[in-house]
Fold this protein.
Amino acid sequence: MTTVPHFINGQRVAAEGVSPVFNPATGEVIATVPVPTPTQVDEVVALARQTALTWSTSTLSQRTNILFSLRHLIVAHTDELAALITREHGKTLPDARGEIARGLENVEYACGLIEHLKGGFSPQVADGVDVHSFREALGVVLEITPFNFPIMVPLWMTANALATGNVVILKPSERDPSVSVRLGELLKEAGLPDGVFNVIQGNADTVNQLLTHDGIDAVSFVGSTPVARHVYETATHAGKRAQALGGAKNHMVVLPDADLDVAADAAINAGYGAAGERCMAISVVVAVGGIGDALIAKITERLDKLTVGPGNEAASDFGPVITEAHRNRVRSYVDNAASEGATVVRDGAELLNRPGFFIGPCLLDNVAPGMKAYDDEIFGPVLGVTRVETFADAVALINANPYGNGTAIFTRDGNAARLFTRQVSVGMIGVNVPIPVPVSAYSFGGWKNSLFGHAHMYGPEGIAFFSRAKVVTTRWPQPSESQIDLGFPRTR
């Protein structure tokens, strides 16, 4: 039995394991994770604060070179990193490689930090007065990342945090923590000074101590909505800058004019990929008009051809969910669906007796608000279909939902698509694109209960979150110039 270490000051730091790490494909405990004492947490934060004094004054070219080197190393080690992810998370190897690729996009974006951090200059705003601005680091930032993307989300946060001159303390999920330690080693190999990126394992107590710690300047979080709300409220109450991305209930609207084969493909890909454990997964297909039966038939035809198995087997379309407890929770929604009025088209029960935490693809029809299968974020391979009469009904359904992470519309009607993008209260929208995760030049983030705080993640808003602006007004007086004026300073 191995114990996943911390990564502190450029070194693996061993500690006694407490929390189990499973291989979801077999159900076996393959490692344990330590929980640091409060004193150990204090020591890591103190180290980070000391390191911040020098890293914040590092040159932009030094940071750029490190990020370019990191990109090269991640590409070279993609297969190794993907295998680590698959072993502890369960997603397929191609899916793990895709996660790494999407994380690399933001490393590439952050490599342009000289442009991103460029300030402004306004000469002669008044007689002899110039104004200029620049951005600087916050100090020590805490990253709390989820189990479903154990390297992509850390890269989303870390690349911008390091580019802007911050020191990072990463608290990864205790479910699949090993790849975060490996990321720390690759950053060191890329030339990052010791102590600038640290990984501290732990549990909820560890997180709560860090959220209120005087040595932490900002907190970035991705996870479920209840925890996101707690993180945001706790951190901001302690006077810290915070962004907390929460859960989702993403709707995919299919209009009567849509290509139903394309829509059915999209529903399968976005609903069952990574066993539905994505905050951008499509969990509700909204069939508009009379297309419900035909769309259900096409989705079912494709669903029945899916292969569910270990993520390291090439034939597997998706793998297990993360834990047995989560599998049981997901199953409860399907088991109770009929009593709530939904129609169970496929129940996924055929895999329950095999080793590991597997669930077959589940499909529910006639799902409606008020049912738990509709209202809750299931976070598993369960796709619901809701039927509405009109386009306006579909928009109203989405806007009434408390989540606002992602949504999509499938149609051939450009005007309907344009109206949809303007009318829905959702942060990320796809037009004939089922998982509209923005490219890195834009920023990732939802609305309503999918985001606490105003700042979205990565891209330009990520740079802004991890830095703060200074504005300097300069005046050089003329020789022998002297003046007393108690009025408020004016530019004219």
About this structure: DSSP finds 16 helices and 23 strands in the chain. Residues 38-55 form the longest helix (18 residues). Residues 148 and 277 are 6 Å apart (CA to CA). The domain at 250-431 is CATH 3.40.309.10 (Aldehyde Dehydrogenase; Chain A, domain 2).
